[in-house]
Structure to design on (254 residues):
């Protein structure tokens, strides 16, 4: 994969917590418009990787480049500028309980832009309509379901029109019908905006639907990387366990 084609480039990334090596020399790249899915057992470092990319945690060593910017050396205002180009869909949506649905979606626009009130309100309406939540604009997070919270979280993540979307377990905890609706929505948005995405999930339904490429983390390293069909026919026992469980409709916690 040629470096000039990469929106996200990760090289020799390492992170440990005390004696525990979580990431031990990770190399990954994501092209513009590509969706990379990260698989791995619980505690394999999937969510840590997302936090390192967005700068919520610092690596011990290694490089993370988003476009032309080396984010591991950034702090303060510089890092905030890069974050404007990144959307983050948290596992549990992470909506502000004290803000309404529309106020949650408007939050990044208020914080990072000087958009006039009427333009911001129109932008929020458009975003909520895009995810099918326009009628719930005035509701509080405690008044809507888990699937609806995911939709609102997705609208908020899109508010700044990011180049890169990070998604942590976007369908976790949802019933199969709602999960399928969220997957369809993610696919629709990806096609519309040609965004690059990094998706962390253990749910094979999501993996099969959204992935251009898959990387499996194991013991701090990339165990296997490739398209779903390549993983499906892998002779690696751990990879085979993940795929087999997913195809049979069971959670992939192998």
């Amino acid at each position: 994969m040629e470096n000039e084609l990469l929106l996200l480039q990760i090289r020799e990334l390492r992170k440990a917590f005390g004696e525990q090596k979580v990431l031990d020399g990770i190399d990954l790249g994501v092209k513009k418009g590509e969706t990379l899915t990260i698989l791995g057992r619980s505690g394999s470092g999937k969510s840590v990787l997302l936090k390192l990319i967005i700068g919520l945690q610092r690596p011990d060593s290694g490089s993370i480049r988003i476009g032309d910017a080396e984010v591991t050396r950034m702090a303060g205002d510089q890092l905030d500028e890069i974050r404007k180009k990144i959307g983050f869909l948290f596992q549990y949506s992470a909506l502000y309980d004290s803000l309404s649905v529309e106020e949650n979606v408007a939050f990044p626009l208020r914080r990072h832009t000087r958009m006039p009130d009427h333009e911001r309100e129109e932008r929020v309406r458009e975003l909520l309509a895009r995810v099918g939540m326009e009628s719930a604009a005035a509701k509080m997070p405690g008044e809507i379901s888990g699937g609806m919270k995911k939709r609102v979280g997705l609208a908020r993540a899109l508010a700044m029109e990011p180049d890169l979307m990070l998604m942590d377990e976007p369908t976790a905890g949802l019933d199969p019908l709602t999960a399928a609706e969220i997957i369809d929505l993610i696919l629709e948005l990806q096609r519309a905006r040609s965004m690059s995405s990094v998706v962390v999930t253990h749910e094979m339904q999501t993996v099969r639907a959204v992935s251009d490429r898959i990387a499996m983390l194991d013991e701090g390293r990339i165990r296997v990387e490739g398209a779903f069909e390549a993983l499906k026919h892998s002779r690696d026992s751990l990879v085979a366990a993940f795929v087999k469980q997913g195809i049979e409709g069971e959670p992939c916690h192998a």
